[in-house]
Amino acid sequence: MKLGTPRWWYVKSGGPAPVTRALLTPISWLWAAATARRIAKAVPTEVAAPVICVGNVTMGGAGKTPIVRELLLTLTRRGVAAHGLSRGYGGKLKGPVRVDPTRHTAAEVGDEPLMLAQDFPMWVARDRSAGAIAASAAGAGAIVMDDGHQNPSVRKTLSLVVVDGETRGGEWPFGDGRVFPAGPMREPLKVGLARADAVIVLLPVDMPQPDFDLLVEFGDMPVLVARLESAAPVPEGPQVGFAGVGKPWKVEKALTAAGCQLVDFAPFPDHGAYDEGTLKMLADRAQVYGAGLVTTEKDWIRLPPAWRARVTPWPVRARFDDEAALEELLAKAGV
Question: Using omega within 30 degrees of 0 as the cis cutoff, is the peptide bond preceding 188 cis?
Fold first, then answer.
């Protein structure tokens, strides 16, 4: 059974569950040590095409996938044959396999690759180096790797770390800095940033500027600001929302900020499958309120086909404040 993301992970100091965090801290030391050892011992595979890695230093919810989509779109508009590469989390196919949205399901290739494959060539591979080689052999002029900052198997031309810019209401993207499972970090912040070329701070639609204290965390590193924006109007009338993403509460906030008349919202674990009983419960809840059902594109792609007509997907896109700075980074990567 998948578990939801603990919100106490993202409290900067003095958060709840102090005993739980203390008990989990020794395990986090082992996790961090194993990650560091794996990265240090690896011999990365060289790939003919430039590899742009979009990763993060936390366990999820930073907004990598919208950034991957925007990079793929930017490169494609420039005439580059850009292919996406993902581990395919939640899917059963090991790959390397090119995702076919007319044939594959989220249960086979994962929700994010299937969603992105509607618009771009996408590859799924548990062995990321094999996936990169397959994409390059298929004609990729550049490979945008969704996640993989802690995966050392492929030589990255450009490593970008995405950071959730939401710091209001006591929220902090790195929590108190502890590594999983005592906190949200995949590795210590400074360790992860040392391998990155730049940071992308992704802001919610209703947050005008990033927190200065957050920017201080990155020192002299290049920092790009991107904003999560609606790609389509929210559905009209009362709505029951639901989402199974890294930080489902962010979806609730974003829908409300975009003007959605939410009467209820149900959070679910990231990448979790929706069974018939759960969907019927949501439909019954919506009927009580005389409301529709709305969710993210990532969740919608995981729905059984019979349910997709009953649920409205709400698409979002990442937009960079300084597109010239993004172009400069891509140019340094040779694309």
Answer: no
Number of CB atoms found within 10 A of residue 324's CB: 8
Tokens read off for 90: 């939640």
Distance CA 261, CA 239 (A): 6
CB 149 within 8 A of CB 195: yes
pLDDT 10s per residue in the chain (335 long)? 455 678 888 888 777 778 888 889 999 999 999 999 999 998 999 999 999 999 999 987 788 999 999 999 999 999 999 999 999 988 999 989 999 999 999 999 999 999 999 999 999 999 999 999 999 999 999 999 999 899 999 999 999 999 999 999 889 999 999 999 999 999 999 999 999 999 999 998 888 899 999 999 999 999 999 999 999 999 999 999 999 988 899 999 999 999 999 999 999 988 888 999 999 999 999 999 999 999 999 999 999 999 999 999 999 999 999 999 999 999 887 78
Length of the chain: 335
Q: Which amino acid is at 93?
A: L
Residue 228 makes CB contacts below 8 A (sequence gap 6+) with 63, 66, 202, 203, 204, 205, 254, 316, 317, 318
At 131, the amino acid letter reads G
Q: What is the pTM of this model?
A: 0.91
